[in-house]
Amino acid sequence: MLYIIQTTLTLGFVYSLVALALFISYRILDIADLTTDGCYVLGMAVSVTAAYYGHPIFGIFLAIIAGMAAGYCTAFLQTRMGVPSILAGIVTNTGLYTINLMVMGWSSNVALLKKETIFMLFKHLGIGGPWMDLAIVAVIVIGCMALLRYFLSTRLGLSIRATGDNKDMVAASSINPRFTITVGLVIANALTGLCGALVGQLQKSADINAGTGIVVIGLACLIIGETVMNGKKNMTRNILACLIGNIIYRFIYAIILQTRLIPIDFLKLVTALIVALAIASPSLKENFSLYARRRKESL
Questions:
Q1: Which of 17, 95, 114, 192 measures 20 to 30 Å from 38, CA to CA?
Q2: How many structural domains compose the chain?
């Protein structure tokens, strides 16, 4: 039971980086960035490949840089070439499939058998015991959340937030929306690349299909967190919602796997239902409130 809790919390923390990335692109910039699936695998491929050749720590930083490059490509297509945001993400995501294969040596998967990872390096120090993986991930994620919160309160961060609210107003205020969109997407995909890097070294493998559906699950976790942390919205609560939503989702997933109330063959279907309900929950809540109010008025 303790192992399940440790694993669930660890995955909840690490995957909250994807929710943070989607919070920047989807909530702040109001852009449907579909680069996430390919960028997640890119970060994983770069990190695992670097660790395979004996550079696990350097691989984390390379994954972040690779994610930034992917985000810049999407932003370039959107802001400089006039490609709609959804199509720009699809184009970049499609191209990343070949890039990811190239990074992994034209293999569909890479395994770190008897190779060092950042988690193994810290375990060798004998600090933290069985909670070491969670401690490392928690420190990295909380650090990213704190830095993001600070950045969004700076002049550039406020400009990015304003771009998502009203691009025309930002342009009229002598702020280049192309630049703010580019910075926003670069930061978002850097977080996605970091998530893939940590998951790759945590699981000691990289797979070309690992990112399938990650954007939908990340968005669902974001909405779950926002639904749970309802009330007065502010930037700190919104950022924390990314973490809370992921932890809740991972616990639901763990309960389904452990209780075996639902056959494993139906797991993908159950996941799809959870994601659909999470995304539709704000609308369902609003419709239910409207129905209850009308029913009360008719009595």
A1: 114
A2: 1
